[in-house]
Amino acid sequence: MKVFVLSLVALVMLSLHTYADPCAPSSLPSAPIPAAVKSPVFGIVDWSLAGSVVATRALDWTSTEECLRRPWKQCHEGELPSTLVKNKAGFAAYEAAVSAFSILAQYEMTRHGHRRVARLGQGVDVGFIGYTVMHNYRMAGLKR
Q1: Cα separation of 119 and 105, whole Å?
Q2: What are the structural domain ranges in the chain?
Q3: pLDDT in tens, 132-143
Q4: What is the DSSP letter of 80?
Q5: Which residues contact 50 (CB under 8 A, 6 or more apart)?
Q6: Based on the number of CB atoms within 10 Å of its own CB, is 3 exposed (0-12), middle (13-18) or buried (19 or more)?
Q7: Terminal C-alpha separation, the chain
């Protein structure tokens, strides 16, 4: 019994020494290192691209409405159904939904580590819609 008590006391003393010295090697696993705080998903460039998408979609809506307001043969919607484009509220809802989906896709791609691809996609979207907007306003200006 004496040997058991002495070994128990020795074990407690050794364990206290091990826990008291944080640099001592231990067979126990160490506590996990706290993860660094992640940067926000969207930076200033991402928000700028998202705002550009909304602005170009709004300009696309206004330029198409301006173009369709005058009955020219050259001015027609080539990609969307004419029933959607002639319905102002429906067309505005379509443009808002496409803008929201585009920004959501950019957010999800950025969140999963594909920031460059997301920015490239938004840049291409803004470029194509911007060209369409310029074309619509140029036609509206020529026919006045």
Answers
A1: 10
A2: 44-142
A3: 888 877 876 665
A4: S
A5: 42, 103, 106, 122
A6: exposed
A7: 110
